[in-house]
Amino acid sequence: MIKITINKKEILAKRGETVLEVAQRQGIYIPTLCYHKDLVPYGGCRLCIVEVKGWSVPVASCTLPVQDGMVVKTDTPRLKKLRRFSLQLILSEHPHACLICDKEEECVQYQECIAKSAVTFGCKFCARNGDCELQELVEKLGIKEIPFEFSYRNLEIEKFDPFFERDYNLCVLCGRCVRMCQEVRGAGILDFQHRGPETLVGTAYNLSHLEAGCQFCGACVDVCPTGALRDRYSKWLGSPQRSVKTTCALCNIGCSININVRANTVVSSTPDNNQICVRGRFGIAPLVHHPKRIISPMLRKGERLVEVEWEEAFDFVCSKVVEHKGKTGILFSPQLTIEAINSVYGLADHLKCEKLATTSALETNLKPLDLKGFRGNLVFVIVNTDMISDFSPLLLKLRSPQKIKPVFIVIDAVDSKLTQIVDLWLRPELGKEVDVLKLLFAQKKMKNTTAVSTRDIKLGKDLLKKKNIYLLYNPYNIENITVPKYVKKIPLTAKINTLKIIDMGVDSPTMDLLQDKNIDCLYLLGTAPKLNWKYKTIIVQDCFPPQFRFDLFLPTATFAEVNGSVVNIEGKIKRIRKAIEPLGKSKSDDWIIAQISKRLNHNTKNRKPKKRKTIISAIAKTKKVSEKYPIHLIVRENGYSYRGHRLATLMKGFERLRGDNCVWLNNRTAKKSKIKDGAEIKIIGRTLNLVMPARVTEDVPENSVLVYYHPSMGAVNSQPVRITKKDKQR
Amino acid sequence: MKPALIISAGTCGLARGAEALIKAAKDYQRKRRLHREFEIKITGCHGLCEAEPNILVHFNGKFIFYQKLKPENVKDIIEKTILKGTIIKEFLWFDSETRKRYVDIDEIPFYQKQKRILLGHNVLIEPKYIKDYMKFGGYSAVGKVLKKYRPLDVINIIKKSGLRGRGGAGFPTGKKWELCQKAKSSEKYVVCNADEGDPGAYMDRSLLEGNSHSVIEGIIIGAYAIGAQEGIIYVRNEYPLAIRNLGIALKQAHNKGFLGKNILKSKFNFEITVVRGAGAFVCGEETALLTSIEGRVGRPKPRPPYPTESGLWGKPTNINNVETWANIPQIISKGAEWFSGIGTKRSKGTKIFSLVGKINNTGLVEVPMGITLREIIDEIGGGIPGGKEFKAVQTGGPSGGCIPKSLLDLPIDYESLTKAGSMMGSGGMIVMDEDTCMVDIARYFLDFSLHESCGKCPSCRLGTKQMVEILDRITEGEGKEGDIEFLENIGKNVKLASLCGLGQTAANPVLTTIKYFRDEYLAHIKEKRCPALVCKSLISYVIDSELCGGCTICAKNCPSDAITGEPKGIYTIDQKKCTKCGICFTICPSKFKAVKKVSPPIK
User: Fold this and answer.
1) Do B455 and A173 touch (CB under 8 A)?
2) Which domain holds residue B379?
3) In chain A, what are the helix, strand and coil shares in percent, each to the nearest 5?
4) Which of B229 and A719 is assigned the larger pLDDT?
5) Which residue among A346, A640, A666, B62 is least enclosed by CB atoms within 10 Å?
6) ipTM score of complex
């Protein structure tokens, strides 16, 4: 502990702390702009300057480490003058008509600008009005006028990227977004361009964010002190009135988030002092208020779907399940709450239903992930899993600064943003990933039959030496792997609650259930798989309508509208809290099932659902290509879906970012088959016939195509296929 | 010693045609098979730019200085001077001040007043050959240090010598080394700052081109004293010849065992690499330079921590300027007392200045500290050309200030220049005569700083921008009452609120010109008049009817047909049509000199 004096007050401080940190802890106000608690101090805005005894020039307190006996003053007249000077200069480049306007009252009264300033020069039409750090600073520093000439950058607002817009006319160059992107997210998409008065924030070569490889985590938007970066969806929804701390159920990590609400509308969802990904940041509000949502029960009467009351809907369900007793199949999504899953099992027990299945990738040796267990000299070998798009908050935790920098090795035939940031990328041919693993862990010399050079294998072996090795893989994306015992296997699956379902067990893998000809009545809870034939009755319980014909639609609320819990990849039970009341007549899953159970005289209380046998779900197996089927089909788990629907089909932004509703193919392969980007193509295999739009990319190896599995595609396994243009068949 | 033809072939010499001289000399030597009779030495810059391309003929112990040569003159020089020993008078240096011709280089007034302890070897050493350098005691200092001294002894010698950083700020070098030496780390770096960016300054370039071994030797000694294993020379990419010569010198030093493992059979290992700067003025600031070496955008970082604690890659790093490093071997060889014997009480040794602008003898001058500005300008520089009046001298480049005539007897050292509102800087010295508008010159320097600002602090990025806009207005005749006070106010705030040296000094040219030439600002603002007749918006061109000879030249050449009149009569300029291009002013035959500039402009 050392002693310093701030404003004649003696304060104890820790070595390594900055003067600003000490002052803030003591409640001494020092204005800041470029400072952010999560970022490395930058010292750029010059607002936090202080005077130190013995120094002739004021220094920025955010970067000033405390020294024993330091005497600091934070509010001398000279400092106040210099701070005002710096802020006035910043405002000479930032529209400030409203900031220094003295007609504020009339403005509110008449809803019209009396000063007749242009729309772009004021705060009134800025999305951050009222929630802006510059407004706060102007108030705190008491700025009444700007003595400097105003210069407007007159740049076009950048609207061409999904999820957020950028108006660099409002940017004050504090560099928070740049530092967030580089330091915290490790993405490095943003940096400063040019210098001097031309300085701007942007991407390399001025590419769009999408082209530059941005993953749209939105962390830059959240640290921007002005309206320069703004969430497109919530821009005009007004500032939130309250926020509800809950859990994002869109993937297996289950990040804590805050859902921000105004009236009964979800405005946005933001991280809760943590790092989240694009799904949690930009996916939730548009999902909840999606125009395609059905919010009242719909019953098919004759050919027409008719809006009905819940009573009538329940009567229909009860009559059908009784009618088809023993012949009812239940397929549920893992993205329900634990409570809902429990009641589904309860209902299945009561109905003596032996046909219960889920649409998640399951693996019996899936164990809770222990994040605290990663210690020492770490090596992470990541196989066939794009951790950046699917598990970025987890990857950030693994990459976070530690005493010894962990080593990352990727084994994947498919390229992704991940391969650019890891220490070593081994790119074998498809299906040879397991062989590369064998080579890496081989004790004796082994013949290398893969496309990976022996030199790279040696590099990998050197990286693995005397370290704690963890193997991260998505069990869905690779066949059974065997590694030595000292290597800890960590399977990662994309859907939340998978651990819960493995614990409970299911009766059959998804697709087997749909192959079962004995099923007459299908009860789909939050799933919309491809159906192979007509069923007598189809009951759908979901938020959005499926593609196929159904008999009854029970509208459910999304996870933002219910109370409950989920279990994440670490085995932690996380609370889901109701942020808004369910929209329209929609209800929570557990309420609907409870109502059905009640009508079937089933007492849901105090009864534990019975466990079922667990069956390992689909496993990738690569077969050799033949002349008839010359192309490899790679199937990967899709981490971008909610209940029965891909986020890409619901929201344009996700389609542009992920494109997982498309089949990805190499540009040379595309050229050979004369397929253009976006064209519909047919994928034909021995047991397969798919039609999907094409996405031409460099990421996929030649002579192979990649699809992200979704139940609506039916049973799709990795296999040799051939591809043709769709219109050729006509 | 064999007679020698020593050709000055630094970048400046090459630009003035030294290449052709070299070719002519070599061709003639080959043609006449004169290899035994004389040798050709291609050296770095000799310092007197005005005389370029020049040749020194080493003959009979004399160094005969021939100036402003053409390729065809080389034949004469070889035939007459080298073979016959006659001196060709018309090639000799003619001093405009003394109106005399001088034979030997040492007799020329430009060189006489100088003390060329660093630049002196430039005329003797062919930079391509390490042997040349070693002939004059080169690398003996490294040997001395490694055999005789412990690291702390070296630091004590440097401290005792009183050497201060030549990059501008003048921090005591020995103290800096000591701080870095004391910092605890297994890895340390030494860096040579050769990112010389001041307009019109080329001291470092000349040293690196002409005698890079002296810099390398200094760095090796510094690294030994500090305990660094790696050295980096950060050179701006605009110095291709310096980079090439450095590369050759490093290779040779390596081959001779002055670099690499176990240097001169000691336990000391050291390597030097060259990093080329991508061309930003701000990278001359030490923290920005380090970030640039690390491969990131060159932007200054706040200090503390100072680079001596946490510099390159977070390790203790000692950064010194080229000139500082070049002083080290001399101090070690000749002793701290010898060095501290030169200069003033607080500023020791010599300083190289690049003397440019409105001066007769432009060139690189190395003078002992404490010499007055008047001595440099009048005696070494040979005064102002064309009989014009001296007005001011800008020292320290765009970060320095303008020093007026009244302060010409100021002895040059770090403190006195700072007191005058300017600074030592890296050594730029721009002389201005009565035809220079001080408002315009302040605007020029400030505009330079503005565009070279990294853009990090609002005070520097936007404060200087506001000042440039005001100065623009003043030079355009739109100046307002209160502008001067506003400029002063912004300037003082920019000085205090900025993070790095660039911002803290950017306002200096404006503040000093206001301090010393306030009346010129007032003339611009109140009378809409430019006393130096420079600011375009504030002048008009007129034809003096008494002088005009009616030769029609001006009317024929006027691009906007603004000049009318009868041949052999008197011509007049239509002010409404005139675009003030100035062609008539320059083209009017000297026998008439009828076109005049007047200010305030005629409406």
Assistant:
1) yes
2) 350-433
3) 25, 20, 50
4) B229
5) B62
6) 0.90
* Residue-wise pLDDT tens digits, A627-647: 888 888 888 888 899 988 999
Q: φ and ψ at A212, to 5 degrees?
A: -75, -10
Q: What is the pLDDT of residues B71-104, one digit of tens each?
A: 999 888 888 888 888 888 889 988 887 888 998 8
C-alpha dist (Å) from residue A591 to A2, A507, A537, A543, B177? 60, 24, 22, 15, 76
Under 8 Å between Cβ of B361 and B380: yes
- Written as one string, the DSSP assignment of A383-407 is ES--HHHHSHHHHHHHHS--SSPPE
In angstroms, the CA B390 to CA B411 distance is 18
Mean predicted confidence (pLDDT) in B194-208: 90
**Which tens digit of pLDDT belongs to each residue from B46-55?**
988 888 899 9
Secondary structure of residue B257 in the 3-state scheme: coil
The architecture that CATH gives domain A298-363+498-599 is: 3-Layer(aba) Sandwich (3.40)
Give the pLDDT of residue A615.
63
**Is B123 within the bounds of a domain?**
no
Q: Region A271-285: what's the mean pLDDT?
A: 93
pLDDT, residue A393, reads 92
Name the minimum distance, in Å, from the CA of A149 to any CA of chain B: 7
SS3 at position A252:
coil
Does A173 touch chain B if contact means CB atoms closer than 8 Å?
Answer: yes
**Are residues B19 and B99 both part of a single domain?**
yes
| Contact yes or no for B497 and A86 at CB 8 A | yes
Which CATH number is correct for A631-725, 3.40.1080.10, 2.40.40.20, 2.60.40.10, 1.10.10.570? 2.40.40.20
pLDDT of residue A729: 46
Claim to verify: residue B371 and residue B519 sit in the same structural domain: no
Same domain for B319 and B237: yes
Q: Read off the pTM.
A: 0.90
B169 with B315, same domain: the answer is yes
Residue A730: what pLDDT? Answer: 46
Residue in chain B closest to A83 (alpha carbons) equals B497
Instruction: Tell whether B156 and B190 lie within a shared domain.
Output: yes
Position A209 confidence tier, pLDDT thresholds 50, 70, 90? very high
CATH dotted code for A2-125: 3.10.20.740
User: How many folded domains does chain B comprise?
Assistant: 5
Per-position DSSP letters for A560-599, written without gaps between them: TS--EEEE-TTS-EEEE---SPPSTT-B-HHHHHHHHHHH
- Is the domain spanning A150-288 CATH 3.30.70.20? The answer is yes
Domain containing residue B482: CATH number: 1.20.1440.230
Residues B551 and B422 in one domain: no
Say if CB B588 and CB B594 are below 8 A apart.
Answer: yes
CB contact under 8 A, B452 and A82: no
Residues B156, B201, single domain; the answer is: yes
What is the spatial distance between Cα A692 and Cα A664, in angstroms, rounded to a whole number? 10
- In the structure encoding, which two tokens stand for residue B103, read together? 């034979």
Domain ranges of chain A: 2-125, 150-288, 298-363+498-599, 371-491, 631-725
The identity of residue A118, as a single letter, is: A
Is B158 inside any structural domain? yes
Average pLDDT value for chain A: 88
Testing the interface with B: which of A46, A47, A59 to mutate, by most B Cβ within 10 A?
A46
d(CA A557, CA B272): 67
| CB-count burial class (<10 Å; 0-12, 13-18, 19+) for B559 | exposed
Whether A715 has a pLDDT exceeding 70, the answer reads yes
Q: Is residue B186 domain-shared with residue B253, that is, in the same domain?
A: yes
In Å, how far is A523's CA from the nearest CA of chain B? 58
The answer to whether residue B589 is domain-embedded is yes
Cβ-Cβ pairs closer than 8 A, A with B, add up to 97
Tokens of residue A592, six digits: 């609907």
Domain A371-491 has CATH 3.40.228.10: yes
